[in-house]
């Protein structure tokens, strides 16, 4: 097999929309993404946004710049054991991203979030999903957010639903449908988003009201175009919830 040419100098065509794009990110060929593939020339820019390194540290939501000060024995990844590079930085389980450092993420390693998937049918009987339009990228997304200390993932998901979409379902039971790395535009080689997505179905679509990080909140009919246009990997996560819902219906 011919060895694929690494291409470190071409920026990725569509890394992210809006203010999340990292202009210094370089393209990594899929053949070279896995850390187990030898890539001696790999030397991407080391970037941590000032908002993280100054304000984040002052406000207590970001780790110190020196990764050796972080106690990783209290941290975890949904993907299993985390690998580290020779300087002690955690390595993104999804592989090389073309950027080192933490970018706009506060924590070295996994940055934990939770996402609510809320289904309901409209008056014509069509299945809908409650989505928000993110202020930072303008993408439609699940109304999820970062886990607060001491919170269970399901609590985070339902709190974020209330804060971002104005819908309070905090007394309802939810079904877990996904846990793992999100293909988030903020991810770097050393800091990445992970989420737990949960789903619930309600009989009537409650009127949403956008808040917090959301510009808009709306019920959307689920179509292939909607699924493929969602933020990060929210499309595949929503598809997993649809499949699980379908299997549950078949057993009823
Ligand atoms: C995504 O970012 C997660 O799936 C979740 O929806 C979101 C959390 O980040 P913020 O919305 O708090 O920026 O990776």
Please provide a brief summary of the model.
The protein has 4 helices and 11 strands, in the order βαβββββββαβββαα. The protein is of the alpha+beta class and 252 residues long. A hairpin with a 5-residue loop joins strand 5 and strand 6 (127-134).
Please describe the topology of this protein.
Blueprint: E1 46-48, H1 50-59, E2 83-84, E3 90-91, E4 100-103, E5 109-121, E6 127-134, E7 140-141, E8 145-146, H2 153-165, E9 175-181, E10 191-201, E11 214-221, H3 224-229, H4 234-251
Parallel strand pairs: 1-4, 5-10
Antiparallel strand pairs: 2-3, 5-6, 5-8, 6-7, 6-11, 9-10
The chain binds 5-O-phosphono-beta-D-ribofuranose (RP5).
Features:
single chain; 252 residues; alpha+beta; 4 helices; 11 strands; 19% helix; binds 5-O-phosphono-beta-D-ribofuranose
Structural overview:
It is a single chain. The N terminus is likely disordered. Helix content is 19%, strand content 25%. Strands 5, 6, 7, 8, 9, 10 and 11 form a 7-stranded mixed β-sheet that branches. The protein is of the alpha+beta class. A hairpin with a 5-residue loop joins strand 2 and strand 3. The site of 5-O-phosphono-beta-D-ribofuranose has 13 residues, from strand 5, strand 8 and strand 10.
